[in-house]
Amino acid sequence: MTIYSPQGKNTGVAMVVFPGGGYSILAIDLEGTEVCDWLTSRGITCVLLKYRVPDSGPAYHDDCHCNIHPKAPTALEDAQRTVGLVRFHAADWHIDPHKIGVLGFSAGGHLVTNISTHFAHRAYQPIDAADRVSCRPDFAVAIYPGHMTENTTKEFQLNPDIPVTANTPPTFLLQAEDDHVDGVKQSLIYDIALMKANVPVEMHLYAHGGHAFGLRRTKQPITAWPQLVETWLQTIGMTPQQPSNE
Fold this sequence. Notes:
The protein has 246 residues and is α/β, with parallel strands linked by helices. 25% of the residues lie in helices and 16% in strands. It has five helices and nine strands. The longest helix has 15 residues, at 74-88.
């Protein structure tokens, strides 16, 4: 984990960022360091996590080709450990312990949903005092998340390994309808599950944008999504409301 301190006024908010890469690689710049440049410019501490891959996320059994648990849940272990460490060291790092969120892309977006629904118990044996504090994110941002429909028997069903409850944190979802890698169904299904559990959720769908666009500017309207996240953080009380121009 690498900590990037906020530039200018510190809002006290921190985001742990999970780059995507299909649980095989990590797009550490496109969906990592470039994201931290944006967040720190908005007064948010960015914690960039280089979680362990490959074989740390959804996998398939070689014989039956059915979905099974990964060889080791190392990505989830790393995510839990990191959020716990950030909360444990909140005072040292000038972070509000009640304003720690997670943000991820593609497979990293799946990791966002994974830690959002698996925080009551560590996926590993506790190591020290940092593992005795909560690793529940206070909010979650999943950008074109993947693996949301795996291990299901029905066409429009959420992966049962993502057990949404009323304790799942408020969530922001973003997806392009022409995403041919994971497909728009991924976010739609998670959005519905969150609504059924009465979890505050905001989802934005765009006609065009594809997959793995990160923060790099394009001609498509979806490219303005960081501003949507900034506004959402204000509406859920994480960052101060900006004064009206009226």
